[in-house]
Design a protein that fits this description.
The chain is of the alpha/beta class and about 190 residues long. It has a single domain, classed as Dihydrofolate Reductase, subunit A (3-Layer(aba) Sandwich), CATH 3.40.430. About 25% of the residues lie in helices and about 25% in strands. The protein has five helices and eight strands; from the N terminus they run βαβααββαβαβββ. It has an eight-stranded mixed sheet. The longest helix is centred in the N-terminal third of the chain and has 11 residues. It is globular and about 40 Å long.
Amino acid sequence: MRKVVAYELVSLDGVAEDPDQFVTDFDEVMEENLASVIATQDTVVLGRRTYDEWARFWPRSDIEPFATFINGVEKLVATSAPLVPAWRNATAIPGAIGPFLEALRTRPGRDVGVHGSITLTRALLECGLVDELHLVIAPALVARGRRLFDGAPPRRFALTRCVVSPAGYVLADYATLDASRGSGRSRD
């Protein structure tokens, strides 16, 4: 079964909106971390807001390794509206995201990535469809903006990796603890 892996940039106080405001030093360790996350993915699911922003930026970007990855990968967008602007390999998801993603997880392929897309990530957490969280936690308090976990349901995770980058960012990977999906058990 394919894993759904959410990769998110957050501040110390959990803000995920406009990460360019608090992720100001993307060092070599962070680049290697991102490269290892995307190396396992052949599909990305995006929310509509992220799609709209990224479809205008990434096709003309030379920021590697992400530009080559995101421009070439299959992109599935949670929206009922036409995808304008158009972006290569992007398709709107037909119907509800939960059943669609559940079916996608059973098809052959590599990991399914969720990048950015705060509202979508929350919805997938609520449906129990996130297998792993890969967080880049910036050493900054932002105080304003949408927080990644506001409104998310209670859920337990197991820390699977934690590295501090030279610029002081915490790179923390978590696996969902959910015995019904075979991802492990809580030790409570």
